Amino acid sequence: MKLKSLVIIALLSISFFVSAKKKVDNVFYVQNTIDGFKHIPRQKLEKVKLLKNIGFDGLEGAGLADFYELKSDLVQVGLHMPTNYVPLSFGSKLSKGSASLSEIKEMIKGAEKGSVVYFNVQSDDYKNNKDAGDKLLSVILQDLSDYASNYGVKLGVYPHLSLYCETLEHSLKLAKLVSRNNFGCVINLCHLLKVEGSEGIEQKIMTLMPYLTAVNICGADGGNTQQLGWDRLIQPLGEGSFDTYNFVRALWDAGYKGPVGLQCYNLKGEATQVLKGSFQTWQEYKKRYSKQK
């Protein structure tokens, strides 16, 4: 009896230990800003094969121009397009390269179920009159959200330095105005550090959590980040003095399960080496988090 009891206790202890581990399985993809690397394949199919071999789950779309070709190549190698980065402008004058509403709906219709279309929003008319601009923009975004709900696609506004929406606070305001279950906010770490600094990030994550649809990360330097250049705010994952792991840990602690993208804008070096290093760092983040109680 004693031996049997000891065996049961041991099994229960092992079960408790395993269940106590924190497991995360966010889709980890690469943003479409990878063409600056040395030796990056120019053909989309070869590019996505490289990402597949390294271990990434997918590649971000870049609007309508190469949408169908990229989608086909991703499907061919068994990867995904978890997000699509789309320029959206509104007002009397549309910005060059901005997608029309019909083009956006076409991409939504062709997007993978559960994926996110996020917008970098521009408006010359309303950049300095955001109360009026938000009212107009929210109507546009409501229409797109209602359309996207038919295809199981999520939408969000991507805060970006010098564009119409620059801050998480503004992104959250728009999400509340749109008031649709499939519309939310996006965090891009480098723009957050550049525009808002590094203070209070954990609280911002908690505030945005009910609306958070996508997150992009990178290595970066800490300190007075609003005064730093992009070369210090966008580094390979695992590099720089800013604690990106702590940022990711805060997301996981808050219960974030959405896609996480690797920001690669203007990174230098040999593509395979830099991407492999960043992917390995992501794997280390997951292992480190799984050991926390």
Give an overview of the whole structure.
The chain has helices at about 1-20, 45-55, 65-75, 100-110, 130-150, 170-180, 190-195, 200-210, 230-235, 245-255, 270-290, and strands spanning about 30, 60, 85-90, 115-120, 155, 185-190, 210-215, 260. The protein has about 290 residues and is of the alpha/beta class. The protein has a single domain (about 25-290), classed as Divalent-metal-dependent TIM barrel enzymes (TIM Barrel). Helix 2 crosses helix 3 (about 65-75) and helix 5 (about 130-150) packs across helix 6 (about 170-180).
Which helices and strands, and how do they pair?
Elements: H1 2-20, E1 28-30, H2 44-54, E2 58-59, H3 67-77, E3 83-89, H4 101-110, E4 116-122, H5 130-149, E5 154-157, H6 168-178, E6 183-188, H7 189-196, H8 201-208, E7 212-217, H9 230-233, H10 244-253, E8 260-262, H11 271-290
| Helical content class | 40-55%
Low-confidence stretches: 5-20
How many beta-strand elements?
A: 8
Oligomer: single chain
Number of helices: 11
Report Rg.
21 Å
